[in-house]
Request: fold
Amino acid sequence: MEIKRGIPVSPGVALGPAFVVETEGTHIPLRFIDKRHTTREIERLHASLQNAIGDAHANRDAISEKLGKQYGAIFAAHALLIEDPELVREIEQLITQKNYSAEYAVSRAMRRHAKALQALNQPIFSTRASDLFDIEKSILKHLVGQQGDPLQNLQSPVILLAHDLTPSQTANLDPRMVYAFATEAGGKASHTAIMAGVLEIPAVVGLGRILTDVSGGDEVIVDGNRGVVILNPDEETRERYLVLQRQFGTFNKRLDELRELPAETKDGTRVLLLANIEFPQEAPHCFDRGGDGIGLYRTEFLYLNRSRDPNEDEQYEAYMAVLRAIGPDKPVVIRTMDLGADKLFNQADIYLDEKNPCLGMRSVRLCLRNLSLFKTQLRAILRASRHGDVRIMFPMISTLMELRQCKMIVADVKEELEEERIDFNRKIPIGTMIEVPSAALMAEELAKEANFFSIGTNDLIQYTLAADRTNEHVAALYNAGDPAVLRLIDLVIRAASKHDAEVCVCGEMSGDPIYTILLLGLGLRQMSMTPQNLPEIKKIIRSITLEEAKQVAQEAMRFATARDVNNYLREQTRRILPEVVVN
Amino acid sequence: MQGESIRQTVSVTNPQGFHMRPMAAFVEAANRFPCEVVVMRSGMDPVNGKSILSLMGLVAVQGTELVIEARGPCASEAIRELVPIFERNFEEDE
Reply:
């Protein structure tokens, strides 16, 4: 049994066979072969080794020609590794003596060597482990035969283990086939983590080295509540988790009973609980979980993975799909495109060479440079606004001038629509994300010119603490409870209420139960989160009075470190609602 | 078949250590001879000089001394081929 600690990003507990994504082209379960078939298995092994060597040579030639001989030589070395006499002997022994299938034997032997290399703690040699993974993949490809995307071809439910998953890989996971996942890289607010929450798949990220310790088919537990991953659990641990798994299910069921009840404190203060969604298909989750509307409709999916930018009608349809699901009376906040230049098709290459894309040409900055792209989206949103309570929100606003420019462009588009006699809501509310510290500090001025704010805590934390949330080495700095972040949030809420602008928090923070009482106490009356978090947050709101929340907030604002803040809030949350899962 | 056994000591002078590309050159050269090739580093078990994986396990960083031993047919030819790889300081473009 081996216990690994990471960052919990999506709650729940699951237990099942490991499926290692990065290195295994296909699911490699522990499989034994009949003793009589070892010869055949070894023939299969050798055939695949020969093919893999052929691939390595082809790579060597192609890369030598493209990049030069010294790079091609790396693949020549790969070929030598594949036919390495010691390695081949070891794999053969695993087949003849342990009766492992060729696939499992290859995976087992390669893992052992990769782990040994990594354990050397010698930078030059340790990084060679990735070469071994590459080779493993290449051999397995021939043994198993490649059939499309392995994640789409799962035959039985698994626990997914990977170095990292891309957001689109995560988005395409089938929750019926993937009980849980765990990754070596990643942080609490990465898009992968957000997607896990959306799909309600328990997940732990930022585990550091783990893939070398596990082979496909090993039993794995993912504890998404505590951020723990257990490899090959002993019987006692296993039993304990089977019980936990059942309990978690019951607590969730009790939360479901809250669906029809309003999010209201014990003394009657109503809070608007909204859902963050990424795709139109998620809109129904909002009501399944008792939400009051859509607080953040991300529109990036419209632009991703395609060969041209989406046209106005396609966008209009995507917005209408949500409006139809939500109905005409509930708010739907549509955020305009929030992508970097690298993600867009048809973008001028001049933006692609940025040294620091997070601080570069992205999001609304890009829209303001690419008016036709921006106007197409605004036209589609305005057209949809006739059919419901649609609101426009701009991301990444860092100065008042940017907000003014955006509003001017909205006015232009409105005028165009008027001329074309196309109907839309002339009073459509216009708001801005507050996710750049400069915007938080200028909230008073922005509040005079915006109808609403939505505090995007993920970026606000990242920019305030100058820490990349997906970099596991600095991820600890990234903390919603940091007093610097709390002071900015406090400032924004005060500015908004002074100027009668509505204010909401739509980052992951609003879905994290330990911050609910604090945010309420600071004066927040709207929270937008992953639909899955809605019932739990509602439960906390219904368990407290506004007066209590104010006291907690006042006390929390006195602390000078994130640790003290979080400890205090955790304690208070447990006091209010003991069964809540707090990380 | 019967043959001699020859050893020679070499040292790793390249700042990258005995890394993947010279290892590949070494194994390729060793594979051209029928004799056994063994590489030794003091304090470690001797390893098969025709196994790149085993050579990696030696972690021969800059300054390491290694003993190359060839046993069997063509041993002296093999040594004459293998030792210069170290003497050339792993220069790539021979």
